[in-house]
Design brief:
This protein has a single domain, classed as Farnesyl Diphosphate Synthase. The protein contains 13 helices and no strands.
């Protein structure tokens, strides 16, 4: 029996196949980015703004899911050799169905971003949504396997944060760009690290990728200084922030440098999964700068479904 002959045995198998295709656990990390961006730009929330945030979270999820679905479409031949268990090469999701789904999800993301722009009276939201969709397609179709691949993926995540920030009424300041840029640099490093997931990797690129990841975390040390609406505690006891970011960076660095010591596929996959989930923690830390604990906890709750679903569905 060939891969194309193998079909799911029932509705749950089919559901699982499509959840694997869109990396369902990671959808919550994408939502965390846009929620962080929105909260960072809105020190206070009204009921109307809550609706805008919900629409933006939906747009972010569609952009992410559509992007990874099209990623697997373009990688179908490579996955058939290196990752035959994935939904498309295993025959659980037809190639044409995955292509249609990816395109539909990206279109839905653009439509939802436009709807959020109307609700927030901010044309920038629609513009950022279009730019994000374009960047996703460029990465999937042309840039993924080039040296610019990690940069393009980092740009996608940075734009995802800016999508949330774009619904704010105030112009972006240095703090907005620093927060979004830090996430972009971090994800660029994670993307570079993930290139070694399918086999034994060279230690040099793994080391450089880890340093890029740590640079992204390190950028956050300066965030309170460049944020006008920071919580008062960060002025009174700034060492708390430095300690928090230092601990996050140290733990992430240890996990990533383990790949240098043991450059094997399973070790790299574990480190990449850790880094992806840690995005939610970084987003929560950034929210803390403006929203104190309530905002941070709100973002951290997205870890629960991400981890729970990740026990059933792979995320890398």
């Amino acid at each position: 029996m060939t891969a194309s002959d193998r079909q799911p045995y029932g509705p749950l198998d089919l559901l699982r196949a499509y959840l694997e295709l869109v990396r369902a656990p990671n959808l919550f990390t994408s939502m965390a980015d846009v929620v962080m961006g929105f909260l960072f730009a809105h020190p206070f929330l009204t009921s109307d703004q809550g609706l805008v945030l919900a629409v933006l979270a939906g747009a972010s999820s569609c952009f992410y899911a559509g992007g990874v679905a099209l990623n697997d479409v373009f990688d179908a031949e490579i996955d058939a050799r290196e990752r035959p268990e994935r939904p498309i090469p295993s025959g659980r999701v037809p190639l044409d169905a995955a292509r249609r789904l990816g395109r539909a999800l990206l279109a839905a993301g653009v439509i939802l971003a436009g709807a959020a722009a109307g609700l927030a009276s901010s044309p920038w939201t629609a513009a950022v949504g279009l730019l994000l969709a374009t960047c996703i397609v460029l990465y999937d179709r042309f840039l993924k396997s080039t040296p610019l691949g990690p940069v393009a993926m980092g740009a996608c995540r940075m734009l995802n944060v800016l999508l949330g920030m774009s619904a704010g009424l105030s112009p972006w300041g240095a703090g907005h760009w620093l927060a979004a840029g830090a996430i972009g640099v971090y994800v660029a490093g994670v993307t570079w690290l993930a290139r070694g997931e399918t086999g034994t990797a060279s230690r040099l690129p793994l080391t450089l990728a880890t340093l890029v990841i740590l640079a992204g975390v390190g950028m956050l040390f300066a965030l309170p200084r460049w944020t006008e609406n920071r919580v008062a505690l960060l002025d009174l006891e700034p060492h708390r922030w430095y300690l928090l970011i230092g601990i996050l960076g140290a733990y992430t660095g240890l996990r990533c440098f383990q790949t240098v010591a043991e450059p094997e596929a399973d070790v790299i996959q574990s480190a990449v999964k850790h880094c992806i989930l840690s995005l939610v923690i970084l987003d929560a830390a950034i929210c803390y700068v403006v929203w104190d604990l309530p905002g941070a906890v709100a973002v951290l709750t997205l870890l629960v479904p991400a981890i729970a679903l990740g026990r059933w569905i792979y995320s890398t």
